Amino acid sequence: MKTTTKNSAILGAAFLMATSAVGPGFLTQTATFTERLGASFGFVILVSILMDIGVQLNVWRVIAVSKLKAQEIANLVMPGMGYVLAALILMGGLAFNIGNIGGAGLGVQSVFGTEPVAGALISGVIAVAIFLSKEAGSLVDRFAQLMGFVLIALIIYVVFSTNPPFAEAAVRTIAPEKIDAMAIVTLVGGTVGGYITFSGAHRLLDAGITGQENLPAVTKSSVQGILAASVIRVFLFLACLGVATQGVAMLADNPALTPFVHGLGDTGRIIFGVVIWAASITSVIGCAYTSVTFLTNFHPFIAKHSRYFIIGFIAISTLVFATIGRPAQVLVLVGTLNGLVLPIALTIILIAAYRKNIIGEYKHPVWMAVFGWFVTIAMAILSVVTIYKYLVG
């Protein structure tokens, strides 16, 4: 593989993971928790970043060394588990992709004043067009990188229009006044949970960047992905903190819009439209791509025509949103169940990390495994608590 092609795939995988994480829910969560926790939300972000890195280091390395997709690894760890994992990923992916398409529609509406359904249909067509190309893989890489840079640049611009208290944010990131464990779970699950856990790793696998000889590149890409998503999170947090400390209440129906409108007026609304569209369309692409990678090893026909299955996934998501709308109750239920995907997936990966029939002679770092088990146990406990609260109302 040419060095330039390899470097593009490495950076593309990082941004695919990052932009998959940064969807409409990501923007809303950040604004909501900033209003609730103030500057102390910086501590939650810091803890979640460390946990995210622990997750991705384990997952990406084991997939790269084994040269197998997550569902294949799961079936080797426990026969049939790969099908369970694939079902969880697909169920959550389809439900959330409907929300992602909806977010893209809202973005088009903010910029051009169209109806959300029209914006969603236009966005769906753009996403489909990318996968119609024979160079879909490299197009996905370049599109993810472009949208990632657009997101970062626009949000940084908004930060300086809201004048946040940088010093207080820095202090409370280390010494918080409030700590919200459920906020940490929400952020970790939203950044590296569900299909996002495997998006970048599966992209590197498809690009042929595997084996122990490529571990430095795999490690670099996994950390780049987390840092890219985290940079967007931090700057959005600062933008929201700027308006929150001025006593401005977040808009109830669209909290993430608040700093854009407050800081820049009507121009801010347009910029927000671009931001949420970029966040949503890349999540649509990342979700569809990753979800279908969980089907490709089940039948040669799917592997051969994976592009068309991805297109079908996007088309179904778009049509469901256009005809039925975003099914809120389904999204809440699937989102709650999706929280269990991360501990299940990590458990599979951490067991696989010490199975010679999966990873051969590779020696997985003990510190990395310990870190992984810590995240697994913490997320499992808190996910069960969340589901219990949901069931009992």
UniProtKB/TrEMBL annotation:
GO MF, any single term: cadmium ion transmembrane transporter activity
Q: Where in the cell is it found?
A: Membrane
Q: Could you state one GO cellular component term attached to this entry? A: plasma membrane
Q: Which domain of life is it from?
A: Bacteria
Q: Which residues cross the membrane?
A: 37-55, 76-96, 116-132, 144-161, 181-205, 226-250, 270-295, 307-324, 330-354, 366-391
The alphabetized UniProt keywords are:
Membrane, Transmembrane, Transmembrane helix
Give the protein name, as stated in the record. Answer: Manganese transport protein MntH
Q: Which GO terms describe its biological process?
A: iron ion transmembrane transport
What topology in the membrane does the UniProt record assign?
Multi-pass membrane protein
